[in-house]
Each structure stands twice: as structure tokens, then as C-alpha cells.
């Protein structure tokens, strides 16, 4: 029964959820481009030590960015599901934000 309910919630709100995920993905892609630009500019120093340090920092930046992006995506999707399934919002997300993110087909 809960699987059928989850499937119907997904069918009713999938488009809006994809838009929210795309928006978050675009934001983190722009942050990635900023980090990539800084890393690429380090190559113009022609100093192997600076390039090596920047390579390690860029790798750590990518790991951190991925972890933050994934975590925020999961947290927001759980909040959306809870709102869609039970019509209640958490203390961290307003009902207006969640209802605007979900909408109806």
C-alpha cells in the first residue's frame, strides 16, 4: 500500500521535482566552474609546486562539492516527500517553499 502511495506521489509531482533538482545542479555546476577557473589559472604560473598544490586543493574541492551537493539534494527530496505524503513541513522548510516546489501536474 505504501509503495502504491509513493508511486502516485511520484507520478503527481515528478516534473516539479526534476526542476528543483536541475536548479540545484545548475547552482553547483556554476560553483564548480568557479573552482575550475581558479585551478586553470594556476597553470599559468608555470611553477610545478603551485600547480601540484592547486591540483590537490582542486581534488579536495571536488570531493567537498560533491558531498555537499548530494547531501542537500537528499535532504530536500526527503522534505518534499514528507510534505507530499503527509502534508506537513519540517521546521527548516516552510510549507510555501515545499508546495511551490511540488505543485501539481
Report what the structure shows.
This protein is mostly helical and 105 residues long. It is built from 3 helices and no strands. The chain has helices at 2-42, 48-86, 95-102. Helix 1 (2-42) packs antiparallel against helix 2 (48-86) and helix 2 (48-86) crosses helix 3. The longest helix has 41 residues, at 2-42.
Record keyword descriptors for this entry.
single chain, 105 residues, mainly alpha, 84% helix
Q: Short summary of the structure?
A:
This protein has 105 residues and is mainly alpha-helical.
Q: Total number of helical segments?
A: 3
Compute the CA-based radius of gyration. 19 Å
Largest sheet: none
Q: CA-to-CA gap between the ends?
A: 22 Å
Order of helices and strands: HHH
Approximate strand percentage = under 5%
Helix coverage percent: over 70%
Structural class computed from helices and strand pairing: mainly alpha
Low-confidence stretches: none
Average pLDDT, rounded to a whole number, is 82
How many beta-strand runs?
0
Amino acid at each position: 500500500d505504501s509503495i502504491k502511495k509513493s508511486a502516485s506521489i511520484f507520478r503527481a509531482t515528478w516534473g516539479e521535482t526534476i526542476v528543483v533538482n536541475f536548479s540545484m545542479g545548475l547552482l553547483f555546476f556554476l560553483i564548480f566552474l568557479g573552482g575550475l577557473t581558479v585551478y586553470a589559472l594556476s597553470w599559468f604560473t608555470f611553477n610545478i609546486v603551485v600547480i601540484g598544490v592547486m591540483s590537490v586543493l582542486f581534488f579536495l574541492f571536488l570531493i567537498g562539492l560533491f558531498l555537499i551537493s548530494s547531501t542537500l539534494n537528499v535532504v530536500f527530496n526527503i522534505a518534499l516527500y514528507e510534505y507530499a505524503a503527509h502534508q506537513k513541513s519540517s521546521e527548516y522548510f516552510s510549507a510555501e517553499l515545499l508546495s511551490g516546489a511540488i505543485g501539481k501536474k
